[in-house]
Design goal:
By secondary structure, the protein is mostly beta strands. The protein has one domain: Immunoglobulins (Immunoglobulin-like, Sandwich). The chain is built from one helix and ten strands. The protein starts with 6 loop residues before the first helix and ends in a 19-residue tail after the last strand. Helix content is 5%, strand content 27%. Strands 2, 3, 6 and 10 form a four-stranded mixed β-sheet that branches. Strands 5-4-8-9 form a four-stranded antiparallel β-sheet, covered by helices on one side.
Length: 164
């Protein structure tokens, strides 16, 4: 019997690459603003995708807000506490949308793109073309992603509740 559990720690680590539970050591927390959004892939909501917002031109030790999409593709960003938002600024967004249809122990889990429905297209902040801006006050962001690689790993329409 195979299991997808070995993939869980890698996904958690990827989503928390530079985020912490509080401000960087010795620094005052930067004010955050509420951020909610939606991730659409080929105009369909992406369920259970992990997002990391990297400050554009950020320095080492910068906080990176994170989020996970729900069944409707919606997310809220977390920087210091759950759903608190993100600091004001420009961001490069990375996305890992895990393909959980095959067990993690059947392939190379060291390469996160192996399990990414988007073929690794948005995994590297140096290469991701997804951008977002957070302004003071409440923010609503819609991210539109395409499919990397062959696209064979998108869920079927009936699995995402699409109507024909």
């Amino acid at each position: 019997m195979t299991s997808t559990r070995p993939l869980a720690p890698l996904l958690a680590a990827a989503a928390l690459v530079c985020a912490g539970c509080g401000p960087p050591a010795g620094r005052t927390p930067v004010p955050v603003h509420p951020v909610e959004g939606k991730l659409l892939v080929v105009d369909r909501p992406a369920t259970n995708a992990r997002l990391v917002f990297y400050p554009a031109g950020g320095s080492p030790g910068s906080v990176c807000p994170v989020g996970v999409t729900g069944p409707d593709g919606r997310f809220r960003l977390t920087t210091y506490t759950t759903d608190d938002g993100a600091p004001e600024g420009e961001y490069v967004v990375t996305v890992l949308w895990p393909n959980e249809t095959f067990p993690a122990d059947d392939c190379d889990v060291a390469n996160m793109a192996t399990h990414d429905r988007l073929g690794g297209l948005y995994l590297d902040p140096a290469k991701s073309e997804l951008r977002a801006t957070v302004r003071p006050g409440h923010n609503t962001i819609t991210l539109h992603a395409t499919v990397g690689g062959s696209g064979w790993n998108l869920p079927r329409l009936r699995d995402v509740g699409a109507k024909r």
